[in-house]
Amino acid sequence: MQEKLEIRGEGRIRGIAPQLTNFVAIQILLTLVCAISEDFCTAVLHLGAPFDSPFKAQFETCLDFTNYRDTCKYFHSPEFFGYGFHYLYPPALAPMYRIFYSYKEHPLGFFLCFILVVFLVSGVLLGWALRKRGMPSAAAAFFIAGSLLLAYTLWFELKQANIEICVWVFVAFGVWAFCKGKGYTSAACFGIAGSMKIFPFVYFGLLLAKRRYRPIAFGALIAAVTTLVSLWLAGGRHIRSNWHQVESRIAEFRMIFILHFRPTEIGFDHSLFALYKRFSPNLPPPEILAHTLTVYLAVVALSGIVLYFLRIRRLPVINQVLCLCIASILLPPLSYEYTLIDLYVPFSLLALLAQERWTSQRKTPGIGAALICLAILLSPLSEFIYHSERFGGQIKSLVLVALMVIGLKYPFASAEIPETSPRIVAWNPVTGKEDGIESVLNYESIAAKLS
Q1: Which of 26, 101, 107, 278, by CA, is between 20 and 30 Å from 369?
Q2: Are 295 and 431 found together in one domain?
């Protein structure tokens, strides 16, 4: 008999965890508020930019991809790093651009289709996993379709055509491999992702919590080899010269995008450093701000290391993934909207845990609050404008901090993901306090048999 989508009397969709219906409901609400606000500002008040974003904005799209159209013609030659619009990324992303531009007829269409296929396949896999955890097929289809259609981060990624999707693929596959106990595979993925953009190296913390030192060394080797091969592929045989070119381009990127206040872009930047730039009463000139940036990077690095060893490594895997993911997109000095697609990795783990606990009628403190934060982060906040400047990025920065606090406070242990050590803590429903993971899972196993 064909399954139907049924609504319970209290407004919940039958067979789906209430935290997941709340997630979709919040996304619908925030998207409607954004659309109505934009329509009112443009149709009634006759205001232009920035009040016409994101649905009616008139500007050139996909610049993060099309800017390198001429640059990619010089792939595997020294001119690649010095011709036209300067290549501003680490060298490991250069072969990714070359792959998509190898389709000479419609490279942009090829890349945009790749983004859509990645998200559609990921959605299907998540729906299948939810179905295995007791969610009816119709409810799973509703949840996945709603999550994808309302994914403002996906819209932004498509609008910009940013290469971040390639980093996300390796991170997502690396986390999956880690959860399946494939240490070397996950390390290789994290190494490649880290060579593409520096901050994904934080995912080595998953392996460090398991004391898997050899896979970490293997991942570091993969990152080094990937960088060297990419330098050769992009700029030819003069690898040292190519590296100096990359260093100069990264310094150029730092000066233009990080050390200057860019009013039209900072509203899409959810980094902590952007929060400082936005609300600093007297932002210093770039020469002095460079010293502030150095201090900022040292402070967040030291704070992150201390937080990891004191708390994060003792939490269940889902918490570790969540906290490390937030660190990778909150702590960099520049982090635009498209980097929030990285949150779909911990979101998937939390969605599966919420459904698993709902099906077995067990509660998990904090998971509802975490999914509310994720709903806000993955929805448009473009309507928050003051003096013609957006503040959505800064709001999301604060929400990321709140989500980090939730991830540090409430352990999210799943029987589907093997934990690694008795040092790992989880929430004990008997005592209402944290306890060793083995004690908690043993209790839940007994409780499930008794029920």
Answers
A1: 278
A2: no
